[in-house]
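batch_manifest entry 22 of 60
target: RRM domain-containing protein
source organism: Ilyodon furcidens
requested by: lab member K.T.
priority: normal
notes from requester: please return tokens only, no post-processing; we will run our own comparison against the previous entry in this batch. if the run fails, retry once and flag.
--- input ---
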Amino acid sequence: MDSNKENIEAAPKNRVFISLPKKYMAGLSQRYALDHGLFITELDPNISEKYLISYFKEWGQITKCKIKNNFNSSKNCLADVWFSTEEEADRADWAGPHCIGGTESNVSRIVSPKIQNE
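--- output ---
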């Protein structure tokens, strides 16, 4: 078996969100091709994906946006927003705090191994 193939990890079949300090992302990127994004909590439940894309497009090209409604709470919706490059995700993160739709939301920088055919 080729020794280079032994060092390459297969990406998980389900998306995994990883939040870690920026200085450790380089090590992770040596083993995986990464998608870069933001994980948003305390999002107003009336915010739409279209609104969220419009809000974050100021910092770069949005490749994916998904809102997850928490039906047990009327105030705590979650979302993930993915950018085309690491630099764009960094700019959006560093621009905080983010007041989205009149409510201050918690925004965390995340990465995820790329999933083929997504």
